[in-house]
Amino acid sequence: MDYKVLAQQTAQDILGYNQDTSGWKVVKSSKKVTVSSKASKIFHGNLYRVEGIIPESTSKLSDFLYKPENRITWDKSLKVYNMIHKIDSDTFVCHTITHSFAMGSISPRDFIDIVHLKRFEGNVYVISSKSVEFPGYPPSSDYIRGYNHACGFVCSPLQDNPAQSKLVMFVQTEMRGKLSPSIIEATMPSNLVNFILNAKDGIKTHRAPPGRGCHRPCQSSLKKK
After folding, report:
1. 10 Å Cβ neighbour count for 3?
2. Any residues with CB less than 8 A from the CB of 96 and at least 6 apart, and which?
3. 189 and which of 28, 78, 151, 156 could share a cystine (Cβ 3.0–4.6 Å)?
4. Cα 215 to the chain's mean position, in Å?
């Protein structure tokens, strides 16, 4: 598999989602974060669009979101986020393990994704990810192996204040297992709002002097569902 070609195509897919303005339905709006969704054209589930404003430039925000050593410090949905293969400075393969969420109704999943960072004209940055198969990391009995269809972030400078960014995130995750679609649709919007809020807090901590950051303890794993 040519991982680089796949990564570049996925970045174009995310840019296309960002330019698509039709058919979105707002499903949640909280704390200046808006979540919209529509039926995915790729699998039997939803494509989610999440929007918020981050008080940071696009270059610094994209760098913060892209680097694996940053992600695990602020993304409270993750138990593990490891780079398992570096392709180049802008592309890597990662292994992710999530915590359970929705009060344990959705058990931990693991994912193998190709992650790519690309800069476009106008200081717009796209961080894309898509699930792949990778040697040495087959599905295990410890976790349900989920699948991320084209997902990612678009970081665009605000026109009236380029020092701040509009962050748009796209998620179309196939959880697999025996989950009812209604459980995913009921819990995903709040989870996505929390993701953006955690990113805001994370980048504030990242800028703060050493010793001022803190991390919450991990949640325990529950029975697979």
Report:
1. 17
2. 78, 80, 81, 82, 110, 111, 112, 113
3. 28
4. 19
Answer yes or no: are the C-beta atoms of 36 and 27 closer than 8 Å. Answer: yes
User: Is the pLDDT score of 216 beyond 60?
Assistant: no
Crossing angle between the packed helical segments 58-66 and 181-207, to the nearest 10 degrees: 120
Which pLDDT does position 21 carry in this prediction?
Answer: 93
Q: In what helix (H) or strand (E) does residue 184 lie, and over which residues does it extend?
A: helix 181-207
- Amino acid at position 185, single letter: E
pLDDT of residue 209: 61
Tens digits of per-residue pLDDT, 57-95?
Answer: 999 999 999 999 999 999 999 999 999 999 999 999 999
* Identity at 213, one-letter amino acid code: G
Distance CA 218, CA 193 (A): 19
Give the E-state strand segments of the chain in sequence order: 25-30, 33-39, 46-54, 78-88, 91-98, 109-120, 124-131, 144-145, 147-148, 151-158, 161-171, 173-174
User: For the purposes of burial, counting CB atoms within 10 Å of the CB of 102, is it exposed (0-12), middle (13-18) or buried (19 or more)?
Assistant: middle
DSSP result, 10-51 = HHHHHHHHHH--SS-EEEEEETTEEEEEEE-SSSSSEEEEEE
> How many alpha carbons fall within 13 Å on the CB side of residue 152?
31
